[in-house]
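Quick one from the shared queue. A colleague (R.T.) flagged Lipoprotein as missing a structural entry in our internal table.

Convert sequence to structure tokens.
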Amino acid sequence: MSARCLHAALVLGLTLGTAACATSSETAGPAPKPQTQQADGSSIERAVVIHEDDTRRGIAAENRWIQTNLPGCRKTGQALLQHNGGIYDQIRLRCANGQTRAVYFDIRHFFGKIDGRPLM
């Protein structure tokens, strides 16, 4: 390969490599959530999604989840939260061992609905 061809190939390679780096950094979005992340209710980001279309059934599903996953805990408070366009219940609990904790539920499917229809 002549020196001229080698120089052209080197320039082309560097140009393409630089362009590829610039393109990837400009188009990179937020890092995807890890696949191992579980909806365990320990934070708003890991909120348990309730798949009901009715407020009463949704609340009953929250209570069942608490009884099944956190036996011996009872509700001591509740807050309605908005975060990143979503709507969440934060349920505060006191457990049999005296510990307190909060559990988060994603309630977008049932909040303000009766049989799938908005209340208003």
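Residues 44-118 form one domain.
The radius of gyration is 25 Å.
Added to the table.
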